[in-house]
Amino acid sequence: MNGLQCMKSLYLHKHHPDLKDDVSEEQQAKFDAGHDVGELAQQLFPDGSEVPYEGLSLKEQLEKTQYEIAKGTKNIYEAAFQHNNVFCKVDILHRGKKGWEMYEVKSGTKLKDVYEDDIAFQYYVLKGSGLDVSEACLVHINRDYVRDGDVDVFELFAVLDITETVRDRQEFIRSAVREMQDMLVDEMPEIEIGPHCSYPYECDFHGHCWGHIPEHSVFSIGGKLDRFALYERGIVRLEKVPVDVLNKRQKMQVEGLLEKKDHVDRKAVNRFLNTLWYPLAFFDFETTMMLPVPLFDGTRPYQGTPFQYSLHVLHEESAELEHFEYLGREGTDPREDLCRSLVEQMPPEACVLTWNMNFEKGMLKCLADRLPEYGKQLNDIIKNVRDLMTPFKARHVYLWQFNGSASLKSVLPAMVPELSYDELDISDGSSAADAWISTWQMKDTKLIKKTRRNLLEYCRLDTLAMVKILEKLRSL
């Protein structure tokens, strides 16, 4: 699959794996979630035997697979096969009435071309090794599944028989394998960076191949722009980008970086400030990761669930700033307690300031639907939500340090440099979601308390940041 995306990536994977990028916490969490999905899918074909990858050589995996086949094992997980000097492992191998059925498990919610190639390659290896394969299937997540009690694997997963498509792709796979094998014994192919660096997957060697691209380049420019067409013309640095290919917002970004030029539309800022009222409530949710397997009843695959909030309140301009917060207990569904706490602590008819309000409003709507007893109070909050990101997204306030972004993490250091996420143990939403879930398995009470303190500190800074940014807006 690396080779189909980029031959150079496959060559580096084979000969220079030390050049791979470090795996981020967010990537690792996705890998872990994918692994959990694979294990859960085994329940579709229970009582099987696994051929582990860890702890066994490739030869031993091949031997164990053949042993299980000869023994009459009906279901084999991670079965290993080799043909024409290529090796693969099959997520689930099931002995059906008409022969062996192979099942590839994916965390996606629909069939993709890249999945077809993946399964076609495995089919090529299995058939080449002499196995009678009657069906080749994709197991993917059913996006319409709603959890109710224990996970129902027969509802969570959808199974697609793509045998005919896979058979039709065999000549393509054979040709691709030959081409890749020839390439691997030759010199590394000269392949320039391009859209293939991130599609269909982010390349493991992005840092190595993109090392010649400066921090601020044509690829830094936001909005619609054919960056690779400019790159192919030798246009990389911002100062080389033709002005006539940029729209107004892009020109503002490029000129800002090159000339350290800011833009402030004071009248527009004033119009925005006049839409706000007291009491002012600065509000932020933290939510679980968009996981393929729903954590709680009433939720679907890839639906985030709020487990924490921070709330700063100003009852009037000269009032003392108050702070409220909630963090769900580990291992429990936090939604009802969270709602109860929120409706108690949110001042009636407060102007609720968020950053990127569609997110918070969406979470509040889901909570109102799930917990109708809090529906009126939550819908009252929703109608009073305003977005502090508005003047930044509209570029009514644009500082050159924003580098085209209106995210809180970009705006805060430029507007309020005395506040920073840099010293926090948890400094972004993905890390917060991962940290909260990690407490579910923790046995060390001191570590749980420390993680919870870190979560509260991070979320608190999100709303305090909004308080300070609003002060800066008023000073403009």
Detailed description of the structure:
- Helices cover 42% and strands 16% of the residues.
- With 476 residues, the chain is of the alpha/beta class.
- It has two domains: 183 residues, Lambda Exonuclease, Chain A (Alpha-Beta Complex), CATH 3.90.320; 215 residues, Nucleotidyltransferase, domain 5 (2-Layer Sandwich).
- The strands form three sheets. It has a six-stranded mixed sheet with strand order 1-2-3-4-5-6, sandwiched between helices. It has a five-stranded mixed sheet with strand order 10-9-8-11-12, sandwiched between helices. A two-stranded antiparallel ribbon has the order 7-13.
- β4, α5 and β5 form a beta-alpha-beta unit.
- α14 runs antiparallel to α15 and α17 crosses α19.
List keywords for this structure.
Nucleotidyltransferase, domain 5, six-stranded mixed sheet, five-stranded mixed sheet, alpha/beta, Lambda Exonuclease, Chain A, 13 strands, 19 helices, 16% strand, 476 residues
Helix count, per DSSP? 19
**Roughly what fraction of the amino acids lie in strands?**
15-25%
CATH hierarchy, class of the largest domain:
Alpha Beta
The stretches of 5 or more residues where confidence is low (pLDDT under 50) are none
| Main sheet attributes: strand count, strand direction, barrel closure | 6 strands, mixed
Write down how many β-strands occur, each being a DSSP E stretch of 2 or more residues.
Answer: 13
- Category by helix and strand content: alpha/beta
General form = globular
Give the helix proportion (percent range): 40-55%
**How many domain units?**
2
Q: From the alpha-carbon coordinates, what is the Rg to the nearest angstrom?
A: 27 Å
What's the pLDDT, averaged over the residues?
A: 96
CATH architecture of the largest domain: 2-Layer Sandwich
Tell me the strand order in the biggest sheet.
1-2-3-4-5-6
